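>> Question from a student workshop board

For tomorrow's exercise we were told to take the sequence and the ligand below, predict the bound structure, and bring the output to class. My setup keeps failing. Could a helper post the expected result so I can at least see what it should look like? The ligand is beta-D-glucopyranose.
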Amino acid sequence: MKIAILPLKLIIISSLIFTVLSCKNETTNPKHSTLNESIEKKVDSVLALMQINEKIGQLVQYSGKWNATGPSSTKGDQHKLEKLKKGEVGSMLNITSVASIRETQKIVMEHSRLKIPLIFAYDVIHGYKTIFPIPLGETASWDLNIMKQSASIAAKESAASGLNWTFAPMIDVSRDARWGRVMEGAGEDPYLNAVVGVARIEGFQGDDLSDINTIAACAKHFAGYGFGEAGRDYNTVNVGANELHNTILPPFKAAAEAGAATFMNAFNDIDGIPATGHKILQRDILKGEWNWSGLVVSDWGSIGEMRAHGYAEDKKHAAEIALNAGSDMDMESYAYEAHLETLLNEKKISIHQIDDAVRRVLRLKFELGLFDDPYKYCNEQREKDNVYSKENLAVARDVARKSIVLLKNENSLLPLSKQLKSIAVIGPLADDKDSPLGNWRAKGEYNSAVSLLEGVKNAVGENTKIHYAKGVDLTIPTIAPGANQFLLPLKFNTTDDSGIAKAVEVAKKSDVVLLVIGENAYQTGEGRSQTNIGFLGLQNELLEAVYKVNKNIVIVLMNGRPMDLSRASEIAPTILECWHLGSESGNAIADVVFGDYNPSGKLPVSFPHNVGQEPLYYNQKNTGRPYSNKHVTFSGYRDAPKKALYPFGFGLSYTTFSYDDLQLDKNEIKAGGDIKASVNVTNTGDRAGEEVVQLYIRDLVGSFVRPVKELKGFEKIMLNPGETKTVSFTINEKTLQFYTANNTWEVEPGEFNVWVGGDSTTTLKKSFTVIE
Ligand code: BGC
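>> Workshop helper replied:
Here is what the output should look like for this input. Compare the format with yours to find the bug.
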């Protein structure tokens, strides 16, 4: 009898509560340090209705390849379908389109007892269908407004397709070019990762998560994933307290403060503890010290992978470790659904921990407005109107051209005149309409980017002859439409050089050569570490052959990581770093090549002379024996320079800038005080141009050794020819503090250097002292 009555009671209570819930639509504040009282009450009321299987179900996330007509009939999908019907799934990833999302949501709404809506997640990393530059490339713009804008367009497009949650931004500081996922982040500097991460979070989430144009962001991968040994993906990370707190965690702290709705943990271990099972990171720091009330999702299968790490005996043990450590949602490990209830009965985990995790999931669902209307993001008309629109493509072009970095431009070979008689466009990536979309291109359609060949043709008039030759294929076979990138063998062409002769022929008869080489889309990204960061396949042979017959070479680089450009920069007068620029790649590059846009990008990563220098980053420590003429032995290599070939922060323009009169308004402050640094920047050339003015500091003596330089601010300014602007930065407690040997963030008294300039090698310096 009891069994029969209970569900009825629940139904009555739940329908009462759902009536209460649906009469709201107040703005939901996405800042997760302050809880919204009314949402908390609703969360509590739903929680009170839930049975243990439903609670655990909220902590489960499945991937699904579902059609509009419902799930396919594989055994795995059948299992998922049953779970959905029982209300034992909290979220789905990889289901896209309004039709498929509505269909899946309907399963829960029609069959489950409590009808708690699903959240739909997807890796919207640099655009949804309108593809923007890969995050590393976009970071090179140093333009936080456009990064925010591109994230907000990505959010609008994906929300119009029914999605609620992206797994971005990646804010892993990454310093090893061998690591394939360098492409996905903001480079080697913690400050840059922090401000870029915040801009992207603000772009995705807007001011109100319940707005139908916004989606929840996810700061990932918490933590240390960018420090995998020797750039090997998924690899072990060995960092101590100093590196962890001062380099790896600051972008995450900034993300938590900015109200990132979710965090994702990571595949790697940190000094022997897998991040997914890392209690200090997730419970003590993120949810404790930082008082963040969002949701932590595991990385794909990372709970189960703790067995392979040798940290968990079996899946049950892995589930116990992960939940205890504060991983709220299990992405595709099937560990929580199988074992949490038993673990609870065995008292290895507590109901308090489960409730806390469920609360975090429900909170997000309320914030997104899904309890008001589970289908609120599902509107086919919106999907049609908002996705891949002309307006979005126009922004993608602007973002793309701002992301280009001019690395070398001898004798001002660029910009080219549109009146040239002939231009050769050569290389395996010259007419590649797919690689510019880069890896993690969400719904970016195969071969949908504007190739450089097309971009050049769009830019010049009939009087300019365009000669095209591919020269060499980069891979064998070339990448097929719809291929699963993780399964691609990526076999490089090292034998077929039959196209080089034609490339030489067209180079010979042209005024200038645009040589488009580098990496294809799938050379970088997850699981794409490489020991060789040069031009793979026969691209070097192509470069040498073309160079023999035409010295007017503009190397147009497409790539997702810092590359070894030593030979290229020795012989080519001009190098244009174009990353993987997205849907409008060819048009954006043509804008720069022909001078319709004056390049303004700066490198967010150091480019080495050769791979042996990796990991290479400007904000290194000095060591006890830095390179100096005085020492016969020093830290560094005998066969390579110590410095980068192209340093962090570097990038040229078609005009030139001078920096002078660096001033500090004081030369002594107390900890907690402010100093103003100002500098005059002048456009000394004959074109208007933008410059990224960068502020660096060095804390000369610290209780932990401090880096030789640290970026602490920047401003992108526009200057007309001959114009001078005074740029000022405020240096305050936040600028100067670090995580000290006292295990706290504080400013240590002593001497500091300040530099301002156009890249990290700037020597324009002043000093001041912080007194007790
Ligand atoms: C990646 C994550 C990604 C997830 C879901 C994992 O393999 O590491 O960054 O969000 O898959 O696709």
